[in-house]
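Researcher: We're reviewing a set of sequences before deciding which ones to prioritize for further study. For each one, I'd like a predicted 3D structure that I can look through quickly. This is glucose-6-phosphate isomerase. If possible, include the structure in token form so it fits the rest of the review sheet.
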Amino acid sequence: MNYESGLNIKLTDDPIGFEYLEDLFGPEVENRKLDDIRQSLKNPDCNGPDVVYSIAMDVGKKIHLKDLKKRNLLFGIVRFAAGRLGDEPVRSQGHIHALSASCNMSTPEVYEIWSGEAIIYMQETALDDPGRCFAVKCKPGEVVIVPPGWAHSTISSNPANPLTFGAWCVRDYGFEYNAVREHNGLAFFPILDKKNNIIWQKNDCYQNSNLIIKSPNKYKAFAIKENIPIYTQYEKNNDLFMFVADPTLKKDEWNDFIP
Ligand SMILES: O=P(O)(O)OC[C@H]1O[C@](O)(CO)[C@@H](O)[C@@H]1O
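Model: Here's the predicted structure for glucose-6-phosphate isomerase, in token form for your review sheet.
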């Protein structure tokens, strides 16, 4: 790991996953296999690693579990395989956060990159008109917010140095895949060129839209600090990520949101 996550977690490679040391709790990983995500890939018949990414939802320090439940917050971690999916980089299939029963809304997610190189791709909708589309390039230690209701996918953009990230999520999360799958994926496909640089190819199932490629915003309105792990920031201020479980706390930020 080349970033201090604030959690005593060992990353494993074969199989990809996590070991939770002493003061931590965490689940068995849930694996997304290539066959699970083919429908959202540019070439559904491509070759790639059998397990594309491993997900551990609900990780943290044992002393915080009661507070996390009270706040309806959950910390998830995801580790990606090395390699590629045909000519696409290794990536998640893309989904929208379903309405959570606790707040009757789709909720945001706050990502923090731990290792590798990431692009958090997101678009306002998974309708024929995808709205604004963004590819946010980030390195270890950087934070990205995905707002409620947006369709998004996480891309491990360096085939040799796979991505690991942590994220604050609502506890009663749910994922919707149908609209993305009906469009054979998101509105832009990332493609690796001969030098392993990412180029973007429009998905013709959507109307035309421009792709804005950028680095992460500073998110001043969310009071998230730079260079301090987001788990540590929760530990110091238990209220900081309450907007994840109750998006109305930052309702003015979601209109015209720029990630
Ligand atoms: O789209 P999939 O395969 O369900 O990915 C699930 C993972 O995506 C994330 O929401 C990140 O986008 C993780 O928190 C979650 O575990």
